[in-house]
Amino acid sequence: MSGNRIVDEDIASAASSRRHADNVPYVHKVGVPPKQSLFKEFKFTFKETFFHDDPLRPFKHQSISRKFLLGIQAVFPILEWGRRYKLSMFKGDLIAGLTIASLCIPQDIAYAKLANLDPQFGLYSSFVPPLIYAIMGTSRDIAIGPVAVMSLLLGSMLQEEIDPKHKLEYQSLAFTATFFAGVTQFVLGFFRLGFLIDYLSHAAIIGFMAGAAITISLQQLKGLLGIKNFTKKTDLVSVMRSVWTNLHHGWNWETIVIGVAFLAFLFLAKYMGKKKKKFFWVAAIAPLISVIISTFFVYITHAEKKGVQIVKHIEKGINPSSLHKIHFTGSYVATGFRIGAVTGLIGLTEAVAIGRTFAAMKDYHLDGNKEMVALGTMNVIGSMTSCFVTTGGFARTAVNCMAGCNTAVSNIVMSCVVILTLEVITPLFKYTPNAILSSIIISAVVGLFDYEAMILIFKIDKFDFVACIGAFFGVVFVSVEIGLLIAVALSIAKILLQVTRPPTAVLGKIPRTTVYRSIQQYPEATKVPGVLIVRVDSAIYFSNSNYIKERVLRLLDDEEEGLKENNQPRIQYLIVEMSAVTDIDTSGIHALEDLYKSLRKRDVQLVLANPGQKVLDKLHTSDFANTIGDDKIFLSVGDAVKTLAPNMEP
Amino acid sequence: MSGNRIVDEDIASAASSRRHADNVPYVHKVGVPPKQSLFKEFKFTFKETFFHDDPLRPFKHQSISRKFLLGIQAVFPILEWGRRYKLSMFKGDLIAGLTIASLCIPQDIAYAKLANLDPQFGLYSSFVPPLIYAIMGTSRDIAIGPVAVMSLLLGSMLQEEIDPKHKLEYQSLAFTATFFAGVTQFVLGFFRLGFLIDYLSHAAIIGFMAGAAITISLQQLKGLLGIKNFTKKTDLVSVMRSVWTNLHHGWNWETIVIGVAFLAFLFLAKYMGKKKKKFFWVAAIAPLISVIISTFFVYITHAEKKGVQIVKHIEKGINPSSLHKIHFTGSYVATGFRIGAVTGLIGLTEAVAIGRTFAAMKDYHLDGNKEMVALGTMNVIGSMTSCFVTTGGFARTAVNCMAGCNTAVSNIVMSCVVILTLEVITPLFKYTPNAILSSIIISAVVGLFDYEAMILIFKIDKFDFVACIGAFFGVVFVSVEIGLLIAVALSIAKILLQVTRPPTAVLGKIPRTTVYRSIQQYPEATKVPGVLIVRVDSAIYFSNSNYIKERVLRLLDDEEEGLKENNQPRIQYLIVEMSAVTDIDTSGIHALEDLYKSLRKRDVQLVLANPGQKVLDKLHTSDFANTIGDDKIFLSVGDAVKTLAPNMEP
């Protein structure tokens, strides 16, 4: 006790003598900016939320006619880049277009089956949508068409409503869903709500996609094993049970031989393409080659008579109109809207993620909201021309890019090839065995199972990994929709949890600097005697205000306990470093007031360091700045320590 | 133009000469702490989420028998404070208990009517629950009993399911709901999920409560105007229409005279209590005086024969058991659970908010989760003893505190008075006019309309105000449940929006310091030529990673545009100040990678300043730290500028 007092006095006397010797330390005032008007504040928030990418910037300082032209160009970017299009670019686009056409034709037929639709609908969907996208899209690399996950999602959600055997009703609902998928995408883009898709975290998407890859592959066991009575459920347990019960009577060995042989071929081609980048085209045309060879093989051996299931019939000719099939009234509108909204959102997530990846690679700007408008228009028009939901597929886009595409012209080329196919050679697909389509789907979706990304996620963020695995198991063991729901729920839970339990740190002074940092990260940082410096690492909102208050008080308790044990002087100042406190609300101010009251009872002074503009403004508005005193608010922790405990600085 | 260049050269030469004179500037290394094990990391997160208040601290380093004793004391805090209870404390508790009893008896009868239950149930609910709370609760100030908002919520949700005229079925469901309210509260507390109630923001609660005050007052027009055929809906439009259509035949003038006269008296008493703190007891006993006078008045004038509605019958005696009335099976279980969960959560929100307020005022610690267990147990036992949902009421608690309560003994005193009332004087309430009960309710709930808090919210945070008003209008114009839903939805939307569009700031050097701050907040701060310093004010997560990347690039665009116009040197370094970046996930790392690629194309170097422990760890795990180079990561912006652009420092 008495020793304590002596130490105190020693320090005090030493400090006072030093203070006399030194000049008064320079302390910069805390900036109190002029108050923003309500309108200005609102305008800023509104702009950052909906127009953060400043899409209207080129329109500034332009004549009206120029503005009109720019507006037209903004809706139809082809008018802008088309004028700069050179014949030299066409070579790349042509090769890329032919390559993705050869990849997409077999895939389209296969994906149509995944959606429980007749094969020609897959080809229809690779004709109209790519054309619309070429006119309205801003990505130079995306290749448009049906994709596996959306086809599965559409198919599994549709067949819960209508049995696919009722072809016309089923198609009607499919086009209705496609229409509403387009409307959803368009509305999100038009009202610049595109940021909503960002709430589906990368990790959750990885898990969801991996689960979808498993589910889709499992579904292909039907075609690959030649099973006729297959379950309609998509979960692992049901499918395996179905496969098992069909073991003795349902499996068709000829089908299995064909299927597995070509699956091996496709994987080999894929492996080659991956191993040597310049052989990417091997992987790209392998599906078409498989189709041609297997079709020829079935045709000459008449394997279809031995139970090998074949495509049988595929409609010839250009897309028929399907406007009359869309439900605009009646009970199916709500169902169609629900299915469409879900598939549409998944489509957006996929296309925007892919578009951004390739835009970053080639360093051009991609306007997410404009993309959504383009994708939406494409699906709305698609739904009226017998197409089902389409988006930018990852594999297709990667092939497009590697084949040297320069602009969306490659989509137009692909579209032309598809229409030629529809007009001329579809009858040849009659003998194509279904097993080949299954093999093609499996070899296509296997890339969706991105285990490397999963490992990285596990390494980097454990909670992300939980979201990833949750979505994965949801898809594999329950259903695609449940998996999606889990993905969204866990993504949002992560954000909420982070805001509810923000980190805090005790700071110390880094030797030979005036900088204060976390003593956990920098063990060499030294605490200032008599002063506890706590950094709060989040905006103080209702969801965390109470936690922060209690956390700070607990840090003080811990500190004082330690000091007591070592007989050191007690804490006189609690400095809250507020650099990271970007905002505060009424609950936050109440928490600070409660903190202030509690500290006063303990005879500890509350000091704030470096509050930001917004926070400072609110501290003044709420009068809390006056409560604790303006002289207790500093520019930096260094200034606070210099002023309040000049003799204590280590 | 040329002047500009000269200034630049001046600075450069001055700086270089200075460098030769000085030593090489001291640059502290960035702290790379040892990697935490998965288990440790998980343990920390788990602890901070569920046990942030360290409830097990007193159990450390204790013998087993002592631990057992502490455990019993933790469940029944009365064993702990009861041993320290002194007779001197009892005086305060006795007076406080008598005061709140006089306030609560008339309120209880009135609130029972609000829940469409017979008046004695209100009194029952002020007998058992306060006793349980006194044994298990940790707050010294809270006074337990039925409260207006929960009673209304219970009543309005129940009467949607069962007509209150079917008394027995209605009571059954009421007790079932109360049971599940208790279970919900208990479970939340027991599993330490209490933080979930923090997602209802203060602002939303203020709006919800104000709306409830209006709704409850409107409901009282029935009693106050003596209307017999009153609407069952609670929204403003329905109620006003009901009042209007009853104007000519339904209003009872005698009732109105009595009701309005006593309402005026109650308001006067309230005003006095508010004006002079020492007269608070006037407001507290005014309701009881009103009841006594008006009952006496009706008794002698036989006003009940002129259409003045009276209580008529009120059961005498102690709480009967209601265990047999609770539905544990059947279709009403789900309904009861839904109603119970909603009212239970509202009850928690109210009690915990009140408890915290008074705990902060008197500086003692309140364990939110323990409180929830106490409240839950109290409602579960209450539901078995004919009580409906109870919680800590604000007005009652404030009176309790002002009357000088010291411990929960005041609740026990109140409880005793209530049981005496039930046993002895209930028959006297027979002639109490309903209009008086309505007046008491109105004068009680008017305080829930906290317009001062609303104004403060408007001043401090506009989005909070939107949540507040949204909840308010939801309650007033639609229903209490919709209002609640709006309140929760807007509260969560606020968190999500904040995480999606985090603030960024361009920094400059504060003159005469080594500190870099936002040039918007500190206009005197000067930029470093050739260097753009951007502070990102949030964890970089999937929901904002893309926005942050684009925002930083846009700031660079803006800056370079300005520099080009002024013919100044272009930006060579982009320093991202990461103090506030508390965490980063895989999407965030991808965004940084994309940013790095874009910057490389522009020949701008990406530099990171002051990344925290967690972030640094992840940058290394993901190999991004190697990509940009460890020498591009600095302890502070000052160090980065000193090292990279030593001649440029302003």
UniProtKB/TrEMBL annotation, chains A, B:
Matches recorded under CDD domains: STAS_SulP_like_sulfate_transporter (cd07042)
**STAS domain spans which residues?**
521-644
Q: Does the keyword Transmembrane helix apply?
A: yes
UniProt cross-references to NCBIfam families, sorted A to Z: sulP (TIGR00815)
UniProt cross-references to InterPro entries, sorted A to Z: S04_transporter_CS, SLC26A/SulP_dom, SLC26A/SulP_fam, STAS_dom, STAS_dom_sf
UniProtKB keywords: Membrane, Transmembrane, Transmembrane helix, Transport
Localization terms from the record = Membrane
What protein is this chain from? STAS domain-containing protein
- How would you describe this protein's topology in the membrane? Multi-pass membrane protein
Q: Where are the transmembrane segments?
A: 94-111, 131-153, 173-193, 199-218, 251-273, 279-300, 412-429, 435-458, 465-493
Origin species, per record, is Buddleja alternifolia
Major location category of this protein: membrane
Top-level taxon of the source organism = Eukaryota
Entry's Gene Ontology molecular function annotations? secondary active sulfate transmembrane transporter activity
- Which GO cellular component terms are attached? membrane
